[in-house]
């Protein structure tokens, strides 16, 4: 009888039908959201017109008329606002990429050290994690910036480090090559392709004949080819060496103290979280896996690399992706120490043009693209790790 009543109610249709009710609710919510967005948009346009503020993106082709302290592409005050935003975006991408690499390396080292049986190493690693995680990142950036700008000597008294490197209040100064870098980059690209191809062949050979594939050929391809290319360029091309003067340095390359402080602060801060993520992932692997690997004759390093870490990554990759997203978004704190990232340059453009809506929209789109790119890569890597682990 109950089933017949339900069938009768379903045939009656209208609001009592679950599918119709769900669709109606979704349409209603969508209409409310569209109405709110339209109201806010009309209100915004009316306020801009009342204050005679121009709208549109035509300002991107106007002269910026301000300098930028750190730029990885040619830039001058005569460049456009669009070029200035591109400089800020590249500065943000460089910090995010280097921060991900450095924090991953440091976090892996600290995470493994926290599991050490050494009575000194493990407490030091745990103390580092607890200290860094519980101090605000902004405060850490202030501390590192103060250390680099107040405790280092001026240019005239800066000590000369090996390879013609100087470390002073103005930053890290080092010799550079003005030509021949394309050969080093080409060698690096060839080495990466060759190492990837070797990895595929070595994995197939290991699946067919057994035994772990050696790592030294891949490391030799990745580091050997670029090193040989760099040595060739260094022997045939003169270096532009930095020279200390009374008021600074002339020649050579420079890494500003703002960039250095930002990289150190972001890397060490996120390394503490990554260390805990990796430690938890390693501890999630059953101890019997390591015991079985030892019974097969694998050394401790081989056991960690071939048995424990591949299984731990299946647990660690999703929270690692979230941490990388946090790192990319935290680069916006660079404005606090004067590093010209996308947020800092965007604020300068807003002050000069008054077109806050357009600039903020550009910055939101840029950060959204960065976050989606990181998410897409980590999702691909997570699927790859999961697929390898289930084979």
Automatic annotation (TrEMBL):
Belongs to the binding-protein-dependent transport system permease family. HisMQ subfamily. The chain crosses the membrane at residues 23-45, 89-116, 137-156, 176-198, 219-239, 259-278, 359-381. Its main location: membrane. PROSITE patterns: ABC_TM1 (PS50928). The keyword Magnesium does not apply. Residues 89-378 form the ABC transmembrane type-1 domain. InterPro entries: AA_ABC_transptr_permease_3TM, ArtM/GltK/GlnP/TcyL/YhdX-like, MetI-like, MetI-like_sf. It comes from the Bacteria. SUPFAM superfamilies: MetI-like. It is found in: Cell inner membrane; Cell membrane. It is a multi-pass membrane protein. It comes from Ollibium composti. NCBIfam families: HEQRo_perm_3TM. This is ABC transporter permease subunit.
């Amino acid at each position: 009888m109950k089933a017949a009543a339900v069938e009768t109610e379903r045939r009656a249709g209208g609001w009592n039908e679950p599918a119709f009710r769900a669709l109606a609710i979704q349409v209603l919510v969508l209409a409310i959201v569209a109405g709110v967005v339209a109201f806010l948009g009309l209100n915004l346009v009316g306020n801009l017109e009342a204050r005679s503020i121009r709208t549109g993106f035509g300002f991107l082709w106007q002269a910026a008329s301000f300098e930028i302290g750190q730029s990885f592409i040619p830039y001058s005050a005569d460049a456009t606002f669009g070029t200035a935003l591109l400089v800020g975006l590249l500065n943000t991408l460089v910090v995010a990429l280097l921060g991900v690499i450095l924090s991953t390396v440091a976090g892996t080292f600290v995470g493994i050290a926290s599991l050490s049986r050494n009575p000194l190493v493990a407490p030091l690693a745990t103390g580092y994690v607890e200290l860094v995680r519980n101090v605000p990142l902004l405060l850490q950036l202030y501390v590192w910036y103060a250390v680099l700008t107040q405790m280092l000597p001026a240019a005239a008294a800066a000590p000369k480090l090996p390879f013609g490197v100087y470390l002073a209040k103005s930053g890290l100064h080092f010799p550079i090559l003005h030509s021949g870098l394309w050969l080093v980059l080409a060698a690096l690209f060839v080495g990466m392709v060759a190492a990837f191809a070797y990895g595929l062949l070595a994995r197939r050979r290991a699946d067919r004949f057994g035994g772990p594939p050696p790592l030294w050929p891949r490391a030799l391809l990745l580091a050997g080819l670029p090193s040989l290319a760099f040595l060739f360029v260094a022997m045939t091309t003169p270096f532009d060496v930095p020279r200390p003067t009374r008021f600074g340095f002339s020649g050579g390359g420079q890494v500003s103290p703002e960039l250095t402080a930002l990289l150190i602060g972001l890397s060490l801060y996120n390394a503490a979280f990554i260390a805990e993520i990796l430690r938890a992932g390693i501890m999630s692997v059953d101890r019997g896996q390591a015991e079985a690997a030892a019974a097969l004759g694998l050394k401790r390093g081989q056991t960690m690399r071939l048995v424990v870490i591949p299984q731990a990554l299946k647990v660690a990759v999703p929270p690692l992706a979230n941490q990388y997203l946090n790192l990319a978004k935290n680069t916006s704190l660079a404005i606090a120490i004067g590093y010209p990232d996308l947020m800092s340059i965007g604020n300068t453009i807003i002050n000069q043009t008054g077109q806050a809506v357009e600039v903020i929209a550009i910055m939101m789109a840029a950060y959204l693209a960065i976050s989606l790119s990181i998410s897409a890569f980590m999702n691909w890597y997570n699927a790859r790790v999961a697929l390898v682990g289930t084979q």
